[in-house]
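Researcher: Quick test of sequence recovery. Tokens follow.
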């Protein structure tokens, strides 16, 4: 029984380490036709990005791009989806 709990504990820790974490940023460009967004952002720990930078992300759901515009300050989550760095959630501040 103790071994089962240890396995579940290790699994939970591994999932937490790879789960998306929120990052802060600013919208630089929205390309609804391509389903992409350019964000200037701070560190994104779950993707191993420790330095602030500006980059283009794919949008997991292109409809989320209608909720933001260039200049908006946002909080977002990003993950690797099928090899592409993808914004999975985004919210204006």
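Model:
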């Amino acid at each position: 029984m103790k071994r089962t709990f240890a396995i579940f504990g290790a699994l939970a820790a591994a999932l937490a380490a790879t789960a998306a974490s929120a990052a802060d940023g600013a919208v630089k460009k929205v390309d609804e036709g391509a389903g992409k967004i350019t964000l200037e952002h701070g560190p994104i720990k779950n993707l191993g990005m420790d330095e602030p930078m500006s980059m283009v992300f794919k949008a997991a759901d292109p409809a989320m791009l209608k909720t933001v515009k260039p200049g908006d300050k946002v909080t977002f989550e990003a993950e690797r989806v099928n090899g592409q760095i993808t914004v999975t959630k985004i919210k204006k501040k």
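Residues 28 and 70 are 5 Å apart (CA to CA).
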